[in-house]
Amino acid sequence: MAAMAAASATERTVIENCAIATVDAGGTEYASGHIVLAGNRIESVGAGGAPEDLANVVRRIDATGHLATPGLVNTHHHFYQWLTRGLATDHNLFDWLVALYPTWARIDEPMAHAAAQGSLAMMARGGVTTAADHHYIHPRGAGDLSGAIVRAARDLGVRFTLARGSMDRGESDGGLPPDFAVESLDDALAATEATVREHHDPSFDAMTRVAVAPCSPFSVSTELMRQGAELARRLGVRLHTHGSETVEEEKFCHELFGMGPTDYFESTGWLGEDVWMAHCVHMNDSDIAAFARTGTGVAHCPSSNARLAAGIARVPDLLAAGVPVGLGVDGTASNESGELHTELRNALLINRLGAHREAALNARGALRLGTYGGAQVLGRAAETGSLEPGKLADLVLWRMDTLAHSSIADPVAALVLGAPAPVTASFVNGRQIVEDGRLLTVDEDAVARSTRDEARRLARTAARG
């Protein structure tokens, strides 16, 4: 009886009269339906209006003219790059890194916090409810960068995975970053473990989780890769890194390790259901088979791949093989818009330039990548990524009755192929964080001023060397 009383006392929000794309296993959709939120969970989803006898309804939203979807899930980003947008615009990956590492190596705690605020704010106002940040630059004396990033996500109200990155291969060891911007093997492992113990929450409705995330094969020693994987599994957290992004990386791995990236990852313990890789552009059939066999996930970043001329990932083949695939913004120094909802459209369009042409990906497939696929990749598909009873109340209401979309009969096609749709409301854990395209949890104008000031300070600091 006590449990029943507690359930009836739960505050409910009712959303009605909207089109709904649940992105569940059957792709269930409703032309006009309802969603009931009870606390931080989805209580019911269905056609027509909500039941009339619901107790403790504190809010009813008439969502006529809207499409409801799961919140978007960003699986790969580098928040700190918000401060270096618009630089090195005509470079490939390695030249871009060489151009920007000297500036990135000067980042400090206030810069990291401001950049995280800017990155998260831009994503959240565009429908992202879960985000991952791969932060791998930890210059000596820079302060608590991980804590600054986690604090920004907490204050903004976005569900968050910090991929605590690391590098131990500096210029003197043949790497690209300056030596003072890398850590020793022991320091990187110790700091990563401390970050997991301080910030990782394994609970079902966790707002913050941490992954172990050495940067890439060309900036990390084999020992850091191997021991990083062992650390993650000892602590029970996920693993993340960059993989098979460019032809130059493929060449580097063959020259240094005598094998391609996928074989190298497997040799160091970096394939498995608890692993996701960013990019995975240059993969052959055996690479894809290895990812499928081990359940290794992929963060597909179409805009960044195009910006850096990296190539077109074989997303249709990855999906056909059963590889979990989500979408990523990537760092805003290679995707200046910083928005994930644009990646729905770009994933569809860019993949249709590949071998599969018009059969590569459709609008609903693109939406699945940006929602359920991303939740799979982050290990949270049981909790979010689709609108189903019992899942966390992470969802977005997209306005579809304005000039930009009103003549498109199919709301999912309108969302994916049309102009960026206005976000009328975005909920994370049952809490509304966006209303009519504006953030409710932070002052957007103040964030804009802070990021501008910190970007200028970073540029001055880097110029002084």
Automatic annotation (TrEMBL):
It is an enzyme of class 3 (hydrolase). NCBIfam families: PRK08203.1. Residues 68-431 form the Amidohydrolase-related domain. Keywords: Hydrolase, Metal-binding, Zinc. It comes from the Bacteria. Its EC number is 3.5.4.3. This is Guanine deaminase. InterPro entries: Amidohydro-rel (IPR006680), Metal-dep_hydrolase_composite (IPR011059), Metal_Hydrolase (IPR032466), MTA/SAH_deaminase (IPR050287). It holds the Pfam family Amidohydro_1. GO terms for molecular function: guanine deaminase activity; metal ion binding.
